Amino acid sequence: MIAALVLLGLIVLLVIIVAGMYNGLVTLRNRFKNAFAQIDVQLKRRYDLIPNLVETAKGYMTHERETLEAVIQARNQAAAAEKIASQNPSDSGAMTGLIGAEGALSGALGRLFALSEAYPDLKANQNMMQLTEELTSTENKISFARQAYNDAVTAYNTKRELFPTNIIAGMFNFVAATLFEIEDAAQKEAPKVSF
Amino acid sequence: MDFFDQQDKSRKQTGVLLFYFTLAVIITIVLVYFVPVCGWHALKIYNAPPDASIQLHWWNTELFLGVCGVTLLVVLGGAGIKMIELARGGGRNIAEMLGGKEILPDTNDFFERRLRNVVEEMSIASGVPVPSVYVMEREEGVNAFAAGFNISNAVVAVTHGTMTGLTRDELQGVVAHEFSHILNNDMAINLKLMGFLHGLLLIGLTGQILLRLGSGSGHHHSNSRKGSPQIFGLGLCLLVVGYTGVLFANLIKASISRSRERLADASAVQFTRNPAGLASALKKIGGLSTGSFIRSAKATEASHLFFSKGSRGSIFSTHPPLAERVRWLDPHFNGDFERVTYEDLRTNLHQFEGAPEIKEKEQPDVVDLFTQPQNIAVAGAVLETAKPSSPQPTQRPNNPEALIDSIGKPMEHHAEVARALIDSIPENIKAHARDPYGARMLIYGLLLDADEEIRNKQLAILKDQADPEVYNIVEKTLPELESITPEMRLPIIDLSMPALRLLSAIQYKNFRHIMKTLIMADEKIDIHEGALYTALTHHLDPVFSGKAKPRPLNYYAIRGLEQETSVILSLLARTGNSPEEQEAAFESAVGKINAPRTNFDLLPEDECGWEQFNEALNKFNEASFKVKRWLLGGALACLMYDKKITVEEVELFRIIADTLGCPVPPWVAPTKTRDAA
C-alpha cells in the first residue's frame, strides 16, 4: 500500500515536471510569435508604401514599365506570403516562402533604385524623397525587429533541443522554428552580370 | 488608511491566505485517509455474512503517514511549481495562457489605438510605466483583468468584446478598475491564490486520471485487461476528495476577492470622477447575452482575476452581484438590465466615436497598380479622433508634502495633467516612443547633454557604437529633443517602456551598454541621467534577466537598513543642495525619519554614487511599506531643504518612489502646451 502511494506520488511529481517543461516551451513559442507580430506590422507598412512609390516613379520612368511591374508583382507575392506566415509563424514552410518572397522584393526594389539614378527629376521629386525616406526607415525597423525575432527563435530552438526538454518537444510536436534571414536576391544575382 | 498601510495590509492577507490554505490541506489529508478506509469498511460489511462480527480498523499509522506524505507532496509541489511558473513570466504568461495577444505599442487599428491611449493616460496619471496591453481576441464577452506580481511586470488584458463594444468612457472605467488592482497590489495576492488553487486542484486531477486508467478506457492494453476496480475505486475517492478541496479553495478565493473588487470599483471612480462610465460598462455586461463570459478553458483557475465574473452561475462568486455593483455607482438603478446586442454597440460607436463599421474590413490582397491606382496616405495615419478635447488642467497649489499623500491614489486632476502632458509631447517623439527601434533612440536622445562639447562626444559614441541609422535619426530629431521640458521626461520614459520590453535580450544588453557609455561621456552622472538610468534598469532588467520574481519581505524596521538609508539620503543631500547646505539638509532628513537607536552618516561623495544608490534602493524593496514611507519622507525633506523644489528634483523623487513600488502621480502640469509652443 505504502509502495503504491509512493509510486503514485512519484507519478504525480513527474506529471508536474513534464507540465512545467511543456509550459516553458509554450511560453518561448509565444515569445517568438509575438516577436513576429512586430516584423509583421513593419512588413505591412512597407507593402503599403511600395504602390505609392511605383505610382510616383511611373510618371518619370516611362520606359521602365517592366521593372515597375516586377516590383509590384514581387510586392504582391510578398504580401500574399506574409499573410500566410502571419497566421502561423511557427510553420517553417510558410516562413521559408516569406523569406523567399521578401528576398525577391528587395532585389526588385534594388533594381528600381539603381535605375532611378538615371532620372534626376524623379530623385528631386518631393514625394519620392519622402517615400524613399519612409521606406528606408521602415526597412531599418524591419531588420531590427528581425533581429529580435531571430533571438527569440534561437532561444526557443535551443530549449527545444536541450535535454530533457527535447523529449517533451518530441512528444507534443514542438517543431523547430525558422530564422528570418533575408538573402539579398540582388547580391546573389550580381556575379551573373560580371562578364 | 493611506497607500502604505494598504500595501502592508495587502501583504498580510497572504498570511490569512496561508492559514486557510493550511486548513484546506489538513481537511484534504483527513479526507484522503478516511474516504478509502470508509469505502473499504463498507465493502467489508457488504461482503461479510450477516451473522459475522466485523472488526473495523479505523486507524493505521503507516497508511496515514503515507497519505500525509503523498498529499503534501502533490499539493505543495503543485502549488509551488505553479507559483514559480506564474512568477517567472509575470503577467505576460497569464495573459498568454488565457489566449491573449499583445497589442503592439505602435498599432494603427482604431480600437487597439483607443485602448492603448486610455491605458497610456491612466499610467501617466498614476505615475507607473505603461504596462503591456493584451487583447483576448476570441472572447466576445465584456471582461478584463490585470495580472503580474508587481508594477513593472503588470499587464492589462481585455476581451475583444470590451475593446470593440464599449464607449471610451466605459473603457476608461474598466481600465481604471484594473489599474486600481495594480496600485492596490491585488495582483500578487491573486497569483498566490492561483498557485494554491492549482495545488488543491491536482488531487482531483490525479483522481480523474486514475479513474480513466481504472476503467480501462483511454489505454488499450494488448491483453485487453478491463481495468482494475481497485485503481478505479481509488480514482473515484481522489476525485471526490479533490473536488472537496477545490470547493474550499473557491470559498477562500471568493471571500478574499469580493472585497478587493469593491475597493477597485471605488478607486476607479475616484480616479475618473465618472461613476457613469463604470456603471454603464457594468450595465452593458448585464444587458449583453454574452455578458462577461470567458470561453477559455483555463478561466476557472483565474476567475478572480477578471473585471466581472468570467464563468456563469457559480455560488462561489468571486465578484459581488452585478446589480449591486451598479447600485453602488448609480443609486437610482432599478435592477433591470436593458437588453443590448453587440451589433447595437458597434453601430453606436461608429456613430459617436468614428469607429470603423462592423463589416470585417478585408484589405485587398493584391493591388494591381496599373489598372487601379492606390491612394494610401504616406505618413502613418495616427488615430486621434477618439480622444476627447482636453481642458487645460488647473494648476494646483504645489505643496510638496502632498506628494507622499498622493502616492498610489491618482485622482481626477492627475488624469487631466496626464492628458495635458501626453498632448504636450511632440507627435514625432510619441511615435518614436511607441516602437522598439525609435524608443531606443529616444532614450539615447534624452541622455544628450546640453553642453555642446559633451554632446558632440556623445554623438561620436553613438556613431561608433550604435548602428549608423540610429545616429542619423537622433541627429534629425535633435530640434524636437531640445524642446522637451523636464516634466515631459518621465512621461516619455513611461511611454517607451512597452516598446523597450519588446527588445530581445541581446538587443537590450547592447542598449544598456550604450546608455551607460553615454551617461559616462562627461565622467559624471547628472541628476536627470541617474534618474533615467534608475527608472529604466529597475523596470527592464528583471524582464530580460529572466530573474523576475517577487521580492521577499526582510526588513520591518529602518534599523536594518542604516547603511542604505545613509547612501540614499547622502546622494540626495549632495545633489539637491549647495555645498554648505548639504550637512543641514541631511540632518533635516534624518530628523524627519526620527527613528530611535539608529545612526545615519552623511557619506563623502565617492561613497554615495549612483551604483551604490541603486543597490540601496534594491535593498529597500525588501522592506515593509512602513519603512519605505519613512525613507520617502526623509528623501523629500532632503530635496526640499533649500525651500525650493525644482522639477528635476520632483521627477527624481517620483522615480525613487516608483522604484520602491510607490507610484506618485504627476505633480506638475506641462509648462507650455503645444499650441503655445
Architecture overview:
Chain A has helices spanning 2-60, 65-87, 92-116, 120-124, 126-161, 165-171, 185-189. Chain A has 195 residues and is mainly alpha-helical. In chain A, helix 1 runs antiparallel to helix 2 (65-87). Residues 185-195 of chain A have low confidence and may be disordered. Mean pLDDT of chain B is 77; it is low at 218-225, 360-397 and 672-677. Chain B has helices spanning 3-47, 61-89, 91-97, 110-126, 160-165, 168-183, 186-214, 229-272, 275-287, 322-329, 342-353, 401-405, 412-424, 427-433, 436-447, 452-465, 468-482, 486-501, 505-519, 527-545, 562-576, 579-593, 610-620, 625-640, 647-659, and strands at 100-102, 132-136, 144-147, 155-159. Chain B starts with a helix and ends in an 18-residue tail after the last helix. Chain B contains 25 helices and four strands. Helix content of chain B is 61%, strand content 3%. In chain B, strands 1-2-4-3 form a four-stranded mixed sheet, with helices on both faces. Chain B is mostly helical. Chain B is globular, with a radius of gyration of 29 Å. Chains A and B meet through helix 1, helix 2 and helix 5 of A and helix 2 and helix 19 of B.
